[in-house]
Amino acid sequence: MNGERHTYVIELILEMRKHGWLWTEEYCWHKKNCYPGKWPNRFRDAWERCLHFTKRRRFNMYQEAVMVPMGDWAEARLKNLSETDRRRDESRVNSGFGKNVSNWLGRDKVYPTNVLHMATECSNRAHSAVFPVGLPEWFIKLFTVEGDLVLDPFMGSGTTGVAAKGLCRDYVGIEVMPEYVVEAQERIVATEPGCPSRFGKEFAGGLYETILTSSAHDI
Ligand SMILES: C[S@@+](CC[C@H](N)C(=O)[O-])C[C@H]1O[C@@H](n2cnc3c(N)ncnc32)[C@H](O)[C@@H]1O
Predict the structure, then answer these.
(1) Residue 1 is assigned to a structural domain of this protein
(2) Do 56 and 116 reside in the same domain of the chain?
(3) Atom 8, ligand 1: residue with shortest CA distance
(4) Residues contacting 118, CB < 8 A, separation 6+
(5) In the chain, is it the N or the C terminus that has fewer CB atoms within a 10 Å radius of its CB?
């Protein structure tokens, strides 16, 4: 905007903090298939921020649910461990974080980083800002368990509802545009629930002016 980046994300973070939210973490969604292009003073946008706010310092986080394969680096890195690698090496900047590299010997999975590598959604043309189902799926697995309730106040074409139903979580979606509510409802109805006890059953709840709901407890 006017030759420079907009600051609305930074302003949003500061405003949320003023309202009592804790800015807990920031994730980078690396869009693996961003459009080609050239601008005189900047490169292509290949990532987007995912901001994580919480009301409390302690919250549920199920990191085991999103572990990833160890990767090629492990064989070479873990082959010849130094003395430091074999004990807890505390952060030099007193952050309280430390690491013991030898803990990873013999494992085949590690906790992920806060960079998510996912292609954008190209097949759904019914909404201009659809994100890939894998994105809400990752966060839903990380922060909820089966039967928990997921709220998306900007439901769009219903991707969060699709992810929640597929992972057997209940959901509430809010969307201001009636045509997107219809699109979201159609996509969610066509999604099979992830838990066997709910296969073949329609999710209860339904279409409201701006709110889509579904609850396992209504079935
Ligand atoms: C970025 S899109 C979300 C797209 C969605 N993630 C998907 O995959 O389809 C944001 C949506 O929020 C809706 N929206 C904007 N302001 C809203 C409001 N005040 N209340 C409810 N929905 C709103 C827009 O109509 C739009 O569909």
Answers:
(1) no
(2) yes
(3) 130
(4) 29, 30, 31, 32, 132, 134, 135
(5) N
